[in-house]
Amino acid sequence: MNDLWNGIQQAIWLTLTLDADLVEISLRSLRVTLSALFVSCLIALPLAAILAVRRFKYRRLIISTLNALMGLPPVVVGLIVYILLSRSGPFGVLGLLFTTHAMVIAQVIIITPLITSIAHQSLRELWSEYHDLLISMNTSKWQRIKTLLWDGRRALMTASLAGFGRAIGEVGAIMIVGGNIDHATRVLTTAISLETSKGDFALALALGFVLITLALAVNFTTHWLGRTEREGRW
Amino acid sequence: MIRILLMLITVTFATYSNADMMRMAVTTSFNNSGLSEKLLPAIQADLGLEVQLLIVGTGQAIRLGEAGDVDAILVHSQKAEEAFVAAGYGTHRREIMYNDFVIIGPTDDPAKIRDAKSAAEALRAIVTSQSLFVSRGDDSGTHKKELSLWSSTGIKDEDLGPWYRAVGAGMGASLNTAAGMGAYILSDRASWLNFKNKTGLGIQFSGDPVLFNQYAYLSVNPQRHAHVKHDLAVKLETWLTSLRAAEIINTYTIDDQTLFTFNAE
User: Fold this and answer.
1) How many interchain CB pairs under 8 A, A with B?
2) What is the ipTM of this complex?
3) Predicted pLDDT at A216
4) CA distance, residue A136 to nearest chain B CA (Å)
């Protein structure tokens, strides 16, 4: 219990004094995860819409595979990305290992199936409502996808936030491909794991509270920007 | 929203140029000791060289060196280091400094190892009393040392009963586990002194010459991996074996205890 109080106190102290290291790793955490989220959404949202609108041969197979991949173990993704990016691996020449780029790549792989699956689920329901209308208006496939993505934007936001949540709290993959290098690839989760291993539970907890606050802040900002849950809107 | 995102992307993918940067894989025990926080700024100041540390076990450090993912390694397992050089992955092995291993255990010392005459006797006492023992179990230098101590004591794998817990984690994480279980554990002195969660644990045995712990520096062979920054690795080696490094290493203390002794030739 004592550690918990120390952690809270230290978290408040670190935040109030804007500790330089803390600001640096928090910003890096945000940068890596938001970049991964952005790339992921570019892939996942159109893919989800296509899966909802179009009917093709392996559609079911793709959907169930994506559902299964939601539970992809991060440490396995980390290991695979590590082997691919290692100097002895196929993409070694790019020199991406132990950089923030490698961390972004790993996180994209982890969260894309999750975002696609959640987004697809909500778009499918929307599509069953819109189907007759859009068909009767003789819209093109592209127009249908655009309509679905726009009208389903609130549900898509939830899907993206789920992806964000999984990525910001992830440690297994980015530890392996990023290497937790001080001032280069250290982020909040890997710093927490390092401080825990040093036995400095108070500092580790403090960083943990900062991480939780950060996640809350991002969620609140998104809801505020998206103007959800306002009076008169359902 | 989109503008903010785009800005973040640009910031992320903007390549910042590092004039002189090299990567070195070091053991968890070296980093947990806190010495790296003294050495790195001095290296930056003297050589203008940014050394990025990858903190892993000796086993993984050697793998990273073999794959050419780091430019140099600083580890403590002589046999593995010699095999690394013999296989042509490293140019040569340079001894830098040493400290010693200690056996940490519960303060009431259930196995009564405090008065043991040798490390072997202490380990035998732990086996006889069936006291809990936490093993690193991660192929690190400390783990290899522990295994060699068991085998030199004449204790075989089948003698290791349920009291022997291999946790497969770094030095600090293993110490946390030992603190939680009230178990014995082999640790290097530096990591122990710098460890903050010492609840109920203390040094129960130390001083046997077999517990000597030598750290060595190996730069990755540029003939095997053309991309490694060999010139920087050589520069760093020269610095690590210099009088300036000797002074920092020898004067690094925690609670008035010297942690490392410089012995580069």
Assistant:
1) 81
2) 0.76
3) 94
4) 33
Question: How far is B112 from chain A, CA to nearest CA, in Å?
Answer: 26
Q: Would you state the pLDDT for residue B185?
A: 96
Specify the CATH number of the domain B2-99+212-262: 3.40.190.10
DSSP bridge pairs for B94: B217
Instruction: Tell whether A234 is covered by a domain.
Output: no
Chain B residue closest in CA terms to A226? B1
Q: For residue range A58-112, what is the model confidence (pLDDT) as tens digits?
A: 999 999 999 999 999 999 999 999 999 998 889 988 989 999 999 999 999 999 9
Q: How far is CA B21 from CA A55, A121, B149, B258, in A?
A: 52, 47, 38, 30
Question: How many CB atoms are closer than 10 A to CB A131?
Answer: 13
A167 has pLDDT over 50: yes
Model confidence at A200, in pLDDT bands (50, 70, 90)?
A: confident
Q: How many domains does chain A have?
A: 1
Task: Supply the range of the domain harboring residue A96.
Answer: 2-223
Report, at the CATH architecture level, how domain B101-211 is classified: 3-Layer(aba) Sandwich (3.40)
Instruction: Choose from B11, B62, B196 for mutation: most chain A CBs within 10 A.
Output: B196
Q: What is the Cα–Cα distance from B192 to B188, expressed in whole angstroms?
A: 6
Could you give the residue range(s) of every CATH 3.40.190.10 domain in chain B?
A: 2-99+212-262, 101-211
- Written as six digits, the tokens of A68 are 């299964």
B54, B63, B69: best mutation site toward chain A, by most A Cβ within 10 Å? B69
Residue B18's pLDDT band, with cuts at 50, 70 and 90, is low
**Smallest CA–CA separation between B158 and chain A, in Å?**
30
Report the amino acid identity of residue A197.
S
CATH of the domain at A25: 1.10.3720.10
A-contacting residues in B 24-63 (Cβ below 8 Å):
28, 32, 52-55
> Which of B167, B187, B164, B186 lies closest to B177 in space, CA to CA?
B167
Closest A-chain CA to B25: A179
Determine phi and psi for B131, rounding to 5 degrees. -75, 150
Smallest CA–CA separation between A16 and chain B, in Å?
Answer: 24
Which residues are within 8 A (CB) of B163 and not within 5 positions of it... i.e. 6 or more apart? B130, B131, B132, B133
Tens digits of per-residue pLDDT, B134-151?
Answer: 999 888 889 999 999 999
A58 part of a folded domain: yes
Q: What is the pLDDT of residue B141?
A: 87
Any domain includes A231: no
**Which pTM value belongs to this model?**
0.83
